[in-house]
Amino acid sequence: MTYVTEDNLTGIALERWQKTPDLRLREVMTSLIKHLHAFVRETEPTEKEWFTAIEWLTRTGKMCTDKRQEFILTSDVLGVSMLVDAINHRFDTGATPTTVEGPFHVADAPEVANGGDMAKGAPGTPCYVTGTVRGLDGRPVGGAVLDLWQTDGEGLYEAQRDNITGPWMRGLYHTQPDGSFRIRTVAPIAYSIPMDGTVGELVQHAKVPYMRPAHIHFCIAANGYHRVVTHLFQDGDKFIETDAVYGVKSPLIVDFKLKQSGKTPAGEMLDTPFYEVAFDFVLQPQAQAIAAE
Ligand code: BEZ
Ligand code: FE
């Protein structure tokens, strides 16, 4: 029998977990032990520091409910959510890239007709988003479902608004047979990730960025293509290079063209400012994706 020393402990633990019959579990757990032991050997935490970490994890777990997921937020600010997303969606470079879903998507968004308004009186500058959905071969994708969600012009999502009765700043659009879509909304603004929990505490202490640049979330689904969960980011936003959750990819940065007045893409005349955004989404055919969903 070999008893443990500081030097042989990692090897002994690895040997024990090498006997796990489930091969994938064995692979994941032995890798975790290897990296976790290396982390501890490198950082040499005091017992007080180790207990502080365990206490932080305990409080993080206790904050999680069906409405709030502080562990996902932890994974977001450490860049792990974007890494898992990238590994699982290795699309062709011509396809619209994915980015994190985030915690604010609400299922069963209301259907909105092509060109219809999903802001429905929410505060903010009117914003018209137009474009097409196509396959990698350029063929238009008719009947694609675009599920959108975003903040209103005050930076708040539905979950953050107390006094509303119906859906807020979200909608389901469908592309036309020529792949086109027309959306009427209000422009989102930059906002802070939730800062009233353990992640906010950590981020504030570490002085790392906690703002997200203005963006509109899209989930696009169509038969025969990989579902794309992504955002369109406003070019020029002052947080574009320091997104708290590392979600920005250059093909997703778009010009939000500000017009002072005039004819909108919906054909109406406005004598107040509005934004025009044009973007063409390109979907990855299912058979061509390298990593399966
Ligand atoms: C969001 O885009 O809504 C979001 C994503 C990750 C963390 C917090 C918010
Ligand atoms: Fe968001």
List low-confidence stretches.
Answer: none
Cα gyration radius (Å): 23 Å
> How would the global form be characterised?
elongated
Whole-number tally of structural domains? 2
SS-based class: alpha+beta
Strand content: 15-25%
Order of helices and strands: HHHHHEEEEEHEEEEEEEEE
At the fourth level of CATH, the homologous superfamily of the largest domain is Aromatic compound dioxygenase
Task: Give the helix level as a range of percent.
Answer: 10-25%
Tell me which ligands are bound.
Answer: benzoic acid, fe (iii) ion
Number of E-type strands:
14
Q: Kindly provide the name of the CATH class of the largest domain.
A: Mainly Beta
Global mean pLDDT: 95
- Terminal CA distance reads 46 Å
CATH topology of the largest domain: Protocatechuate 3,4-Dioxygenase, subunit A
Biggest sheet record? 5 strands, mixed
Number of discrete helical segments: 6
The CATH architecture classification of the largest domain is Sandwich
Explain how this protein is built.
It is a single chain. The chain has 6 helices and 14 strands. It has 293 residues and is of the alpha+beta class. The protein folds into 2 domains: 1-44; 71-288, Aromatic compound dioxygenase (Protocatechuate 3,4-Dioxygenase, subunit A), CATH 2.60.130. The strands form 4 sheets. Strands 1, 4, 10, 13 and 14 form a 5-stranded mixed β-sheet that branches. Strands 3-2-7-8-9 form a 5-stranded mixed β-sheet, with no helix packed on it. Helix 1 (9-17) packs antiparallel against helix 2 (23-43). The longest helix is centred in the N-terminal third of the chain and has 21 residues, at 23-43. It is elongated, with a radius of gyration of 23 Å. Bound molecules: benzoic acid and fe (iii) ion. Residues 102, 104, 212, 215, 217 line the site of fe (iii) ion. Benzoic acid (BEZ) binds next to helix 4.
